[in-house]
Structure formats: C-alpha cells, structure tokens
From TrEMBL:
Keyword line: Membrane, Transmembrane, Transmembrane helix
Upper lineage: Bacteria, Bacillati, Bacillota, Bacilli, Bacillales
Regions crossing the membrane: 6-24, 31-54, 66-84, 104-121, 127-143, 150-167, 187-208, 252-271, 277-296, 308-332, 369-390, 430-447
Presence of the UniProt keyword Electron transport in the record: no
Protein name as annotated: Transporter
Domain of life: Bacteria
Length: 472
C-alpha cells in the first residue's frame, strides 16, 4: 500500500509549509501560490508554455468550484441590501433582541442554532439562512462580526459537519473504507466530537474576549472603509425608495421568515443537501429581492433590481478575489492536478498529491495506540488541506483499519479520529476558501477568520487526540 513520492510531492509539501507560515505571519500568499502552481506545472509537463497555461487554467478550475458559494453569498447580500434600505430587516430581527441581549448570548446562541440547522442541512445553506437573520442582532448587542463568523464556522463546519449524525455522509465514507458498520463509527465519534467542539468553541470565545479587554482585538472587516457591513449598515432610504407602512413591514418580515422556514421544511421532506439546498435558499432570496424591490421602488423597480444584484456581486467577488489563487494551488492536491496536467506525472498507484503524502506518513511510523492516534490526526489534517474535508476521509478510514489490525483494537475510534481531523481542517475552519461562506456573510476576511480559528482548532485536535489514546 506504499506510495513512491516524487519531486512533485515534495515541492507541493514545501509550498504548503511556506503558505501556512505566511498566513500565520499575516502576510499575503497570492504570489507564492501562483509560483507554486507554475512550479508544479513545470514539473508535470516539462514545458514553459504548459506551466504558464496551467496557472490560468487552475484559476478557472478554482472559480468553477467556488461559483456556487460566490452566487449564494452575492444574492443574499443583494437581498439584504433592499431589506435594510426599506427597514424590513429591523422589523425581522426585533423579536430576537429579547433573547440575544449580550455578546456572549449572541455567540453561543448563533453557534447552537447553526449547529442544529447544519446537522439537518449541512453548513453552507445554514450559513446563508442564519447569517442574514441573526448577524444584525449580534452586531447590535456588541458581538463583533468576526465573532459571529467564528460561532457559525466552529459550530457548523466544525461540530455538526465532523459528526454528521443526521445526513451521515462523512461516517458512511470513513466506515466503508475501514470495513466497519456506520453506527460503530458514529458511536465512536460522539466523545471525540464533544471534546473537540467544547475545547475549540470555549477557547475561541475566551481568546476573543481577552483580546477585547486588552485592546488588541482585530475585527477583520473587509467591507467599505472597514467600518460597516452590507448586512448591518443603517438603513438608507435614498433616491427612489417609497415609504412602507409599519404594518406592511411586519407582514413582509413574517412572510420572508415563513418562506425560509418553508425552504427548511422542503429540504427535510425532499432530502435536499449541499448544493441543492443552497440553490433553494438562493432562488428564494432572488424572488424576495424581486418583490421587495418592486414594492420599494415602484416604476424604478426594474432598474433597481439590477443595481442590487450588482452590489451583491461586487461584494461577492471582492471577498473571493484574493482566495481564488490560493484555492487554485490547493485544489492541485486532489483531482485538479490530473485534470489540468498529465496523469502520468504522478505514480500509477497515486490517489492525488495530498492523499499520497498522508499515506506515506502512515507507512513510516511505528504502530501502537498512542502513535496510531497521533498519526491518524495528522493524516486526517493533511488530507483536509485540499479544502473539501471529504476527499481524504476514505483514506483515513483505510489507514485506521491497518493500524487497528496491527494494534489489535480501536478501529472505530481511529476511524472517527481521522474523520474529525480531516473535516475540522478541510471542511471549513482552517482552510481560507473552505470557510468563505461564514466569512463572506459576516463581511470579514477569510484569512483573519482562519488565523483566529487556528489556535482553538489546534488545541482541540491535540486534546481530542489524547482522549482518543485512552479510548483505543
């Protein structure tokens, strides 16, 4: 099951280390990622023209992969703009201010709501729904936008997605690869998910509050002038806005919430997940945007509809612009490499650059319970570097089976540990383009959000790994 690592693997690994180092040091990594793509292309095709073309093609590949997320964020922002300018948004969130009165209540309230919603529908559509409704409330009671992003991110893309107890996509993949029943992997993951979630969410909140008290807090806002966000800026009844009566605002607010609630019910009844669920939310937001724009602008509604969409897309692409080159590089670690360059450049038995690196690590360590747990955590984290979280968990399951056979126990625990590590790293808490939905809907830099998540997630993985050692 061993794999021969080539120069391509080592160059990719070297650039990963360099990129992570620069991110930690708060430096921009765009040029480094482009250089990495060029270097990998040169090694793969051996021609200058092919490697230069590969840079552009990798951008196209990354943009296609991210387009669904770009669209939902842009549309939600466009819809929110008209709701804010008409004052309907204030009417929608007013009842919630009774429950989310403090920054702490907002952080934990948003997090728990996000977690429950994500268990049923996965995090991406949940971010759009929850962010549009609860973010203005959180900002109003004093929770920074990046605090709301952390809550949605850690509870949704972290806790809910790593356990995946309702949809069961993640445990099914890892269990099948490890030759185990899905129920055994899910049962083994419960204590690990609880420990991981508890450590990360409490640590993240404590660090944020401590920095606020010391005066060293960075809000990470990327909206205009770093002072406001398109979902939370004060309403602006500018040119062409027709006043809407308080009664009509209340009726429209209730209708909008009912429409999104109907979306949730439809997702549940029709078993819509991932992209299908996101598309339903996005389509609903477009229809709401159309109706409210016509009501607010009357005979100027046709033109204003386009203006709101332009505002939304400008925001979406401003958020995603810096991320595309980085995503393009990391996507090369998986299927994108063979799609853009020759598959012959990698060994015949290759499962992709990232998976090859994880497999090579697993084959070079001694086998016992403690080392097995550490190796599965590192392997899961490495395979999560492509930003999907799911592409490498089958490999984690296979390696867990090998280790458990050699050790004589702990197959389910090791499998669950690899799953938790892969999804927490790649599913949307550390890789900048994977956590873009939460960052974008809150108007904060995905890089700043990734940096803020780094210490809590690393500490959580360390504690969870130690717990797993005792469970094996």
């Amino acid at each position: 099951m061993g794999i021969h690592l080539t120069a391509i693997h080592w160059v990719y690994l070297a650039f990963i280390v360099l990129i992570i180092t620069l991110l930690i040091r708060r430096r921009d990594t765009t040029m480094v990622c482009i250089t990495g793509i060029f270097a990998l292309g040169l090694l793969a095709v051996g021609s200058l023209s092919g490697s230069v073309s590969g840079v552009f093609e990798s951008f196209i590949y990354a943009t296609k992969e991210l387009m669904g997320t770009i669209m939902i964020i842009s549309i939600i922002v466009a819809m929110s703009r008209v709701l804010i300018r008409t004052g309907i948004n204030e009417t929608m969130v007013a009842p919630l201010t009774r429950f989310l009165r403090t920054p702490a209540m907002a952080y934990w309230g948003i997090g728990l709501i996000m977690m429950v919603t994500s268990f049923f529908f996965w995090p991406s559509p949940a971010v759009a729904l929850i962010g549009a409704v609860l973010l203005p409330v959180a900002i109003r009671v004093g929770l920074p936008a990046i605090g709301a992003a952390m809550a949605m991110n850690l509870f949704g893309h972290g806790i809910a997605l790593s356990g995946d107890y309702i949809i069961q996509g993640a445990p099914k993949l890892t269990a099948d690869a490890a030759g185990l029943p899905v129920t055994s992997v899910m049962a083994a993951s419960v204590p690990l998910v609880i420990v991981m979630g508890t450590v990360t969410t409490f640590t993240a909140f404590w660090i944020m509050r401590r920095e606020q008290q010391l005066g060293t807090f960075r809000d990470g806002l990327i909206a205009a002038n770093n002072t406001k966000h398109p979902l939370t800026e004060p309403k602006d009844e500018g040119e062409g806005i027709q006043p809407i009566s308080p009664g009509m605002k209340k009726g429209l607010a209730i209708a909008i919430l009912l429409l999104f609630a109907l979306d949730v019910a439809t997702m549940f009844l029709l078993n819509l997940q991932g992209g299908d669920a996101t598309a339903l939310v996005g389509g609903t937001a477009v229809l709401i945007l159309m109706v409210i724009t016509l009501m607010a602008h009357r005979n100027r509604g046709l033109e204003q509809m386009t203006s709101y969409l332009i505002e939304g897309f400008m925001f979406g692409f401003r958020v995603f612009g810096p991320v595309v080159p980085i995503a393009a590089f990391f996507y090369l670690g998986d299927a994108a490499f063979t799609e853009m360059f020759s598959g012959d450049a990698l060994p015949e038995a290759s499962h992709g650059i990232v998976n090859d690196l994880g497999l090579a690590l697993a084959n070079t360590v001694p086998l016992n319970g403690a080392v097995g747990a550490v190796t599965l955590t590192i392997t899961g984290a490495i395979t999560g570097l492509d930003g999907s979280g799911f592409s490498g968990i089958s490999l984690a399951g296979s390696i867990a089976q090998l280790f458990a056979t050699a050790i004589g126990s702990g197959a389910a625990t090791l499998t669950a540990l690899g799953q938790v590590a892969a999804i927490w790293v790649g599913g949307g808490t550390l890789i900048p383009w994977a956590l873009i939905p939460a960052a974008a809907i809150c108007g904060v830099s995905p890089f700043e959000l990734a940096r803020r998540n780094l210490k809590p997630v690393m500490l959580g993985l360390a504690v969870t790994t130690v717990v797993a050692m005792f469970l094996i």
